[in-house]
């Protein structure tokens, strides 16, 4: 018989992460003992290297998008699809993650999908117009599956440091995005003036991550079989609030990845300069992606933190779009601080709103599956508005709608509650 997992509200007089652990301990039927990780430093290194590979396939395309379109004879609509397709795949393939993990184990799935990611990068670079779309699809699908599994592993193996560890691998994720955004154009120039070589370079970090992750796939930490199947998540209002916050803030992030260099080129920057601004903005995310989850778990809930980082994000976006170009780097830094915090808090909410690792994995699948599908509409809308208006000024309305929506749902998702689900034996 299915057992109810009730939603509990922690008392406000202790740190939130300690209260969440205490709440789990009170329910002996739900509590799962965190497995003993034989070499936690190796697991942590593996998590960091895996996370490092979850954005280069996305952020490396935008600085060379014009060269790719010219070289392959792509139309403006087809070029816009290249910025939307990987993000759409993040959402469409995310629901496969818990199914694969239940069958093979999270660690083994991550190892296999890293190989798929590396192959997708190669296909995108080496097989012309068809390959660039097929490879983008493979890369987006791979990133979507791996990204769903990481919060569950953190919740399971580092339950007392879930917020901090989420910030650590989010920081690694931002670092990977920054490296790809800033280095792809110089790599293309150094490797025979070839955009294909610049994009294909990013298979190397994926292969390195596979080597470091191999011991985790062999050990599995007892996670190859889940204890129960989660039911009722899709009917839970809090789960939908987490999901919509994830989707709306991600939509702004992928607009930045896909279109910010083009917007800045339209304002007079060279492709190299535009790529460096995007890279610099993403590097700044390292600061807030690590600090925001830690600070947000010191208070009674995450609502104030969500509002602050989203307002900072909007200020940076509007500054990059409308403010004098002389102050661009300041607005780019502000944008990075905001977006690093918004994304890190989105992942942290998945962990904090879940009662245990199984619920976290399923909420991660829902939030990222639906959220990234929703997020893919943002880059598409920006391309459509640009084509219709012939400029970038009207894009500010898209920023405003997405940002206000993220604040509205973030205020609900940031409350110190648990999602309410039932569990059934597998």
From TrEMBL:
InterPro entries: CynX-like (IPR004747), MFS (IPR011701), MFS_Cyanate_Porter (IPR052524), MFS_trans_sf (IPR036259)
Listed SUPFAM superfamilies: MFS general substrate transporter
Any one GO CC term of the record: membrane
Keyword Transmembrane: yes
Record keywords: Membrane, Transmembrane, Transmembrane helix
Pfam family name, one: MFS_1
Transmembrane stretches, start-end: 41-58, 78-97, 109-127, 133-154, 166-187, 199-217, 238-257, 277-297, 304-325, 331-352, 359-385, 391-411
GO molecular function, one term: transmembrane transporter activity
UniProt protein name: 2-nitroimidazole transporter
Gene name in the database record: nimT
């Amino acid at each position: 018989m299915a057992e109810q997992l009730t939603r509990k509200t922690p008392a406000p007089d202790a740190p939130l992460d300690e209260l969440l652990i205490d709440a789990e301990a009170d329910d002996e039927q739900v509590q799962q003992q965190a497995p003993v990780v034989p070499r936690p430093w190796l697991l942590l290194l593996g998590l960091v290297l895996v996370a490092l590979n979850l954005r280069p396939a996305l952020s490396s395309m935008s600085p060379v998008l014009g060269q790719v379109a010219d070289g392959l004879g792509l139309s403006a609509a087809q070029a816009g699809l290249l910025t939307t397709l990987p993000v759409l795949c993040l959402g469409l393939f995310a629901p496969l993650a818990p199914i694969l993990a239940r069958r093979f184990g999270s660690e083994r799935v991550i190892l296999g999908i890293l190989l798929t990611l590396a192959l997708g990068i190669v296909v995108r670079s080496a097989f012309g117009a068809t390959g660039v779309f097929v490879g983008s699809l493979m890369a987006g699908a791979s990133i979507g599956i791996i990204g769903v599994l990481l919060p569950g592993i953190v919740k399971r193996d580092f339950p007392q440091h879930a917020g901090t560890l989420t910030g650590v691998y989010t920081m690694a994720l931002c670092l990977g995005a920054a490296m790809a955004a800033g280095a792809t154009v110089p790599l293309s120039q150094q490797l025979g003036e070839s955009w294909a070589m610049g994009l294909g370079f990013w298979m190397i970090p994926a292969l390195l991550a596979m080597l470091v992750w191999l011991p985790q796939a062999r050990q599995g930490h007892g996670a190859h079989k889940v204890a129960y199947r989660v039911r009722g998540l899709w009917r839970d209002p809090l789960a939908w609030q987490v999901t919509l916050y994830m989707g709306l803030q991600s939509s702004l992030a992928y607009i930045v990845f896909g279109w910010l260099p083009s917007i800045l080129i339209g304002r007079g920057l060279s492709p190299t300069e535009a790529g460096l601004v995007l890279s610099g903005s993403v590097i700044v995310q390292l600061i807030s992606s690590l600090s925001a989850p830690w600070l947000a778990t010191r208070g009674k809930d995450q609502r104030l933190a969500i509002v602050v980082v989203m307002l900072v994000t909007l200020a940076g976006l509007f500054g990059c779009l409308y403010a004098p170009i002389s102050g661009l780097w300041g607005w780019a830094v502000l944008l990075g601080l905001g977006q690093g915090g918004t994304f890190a808090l989105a992942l942290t909410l998945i962990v904090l709103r879940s009662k245990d690792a199984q619920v976290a994995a399923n909420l991660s699948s829902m939030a990222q599956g639906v959220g990234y599908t929703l997020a893919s509409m943002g880059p598409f809308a920006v391309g459509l508005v640009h084509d219709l208006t012939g400029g970038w000024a009207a894009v500010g309305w898209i920023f405003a709608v997405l940002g206000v929506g993220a604040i509205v749902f973030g205020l609900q998702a940031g409350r110190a509650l648990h999602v309410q689900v039932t569990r059934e034996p597998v």
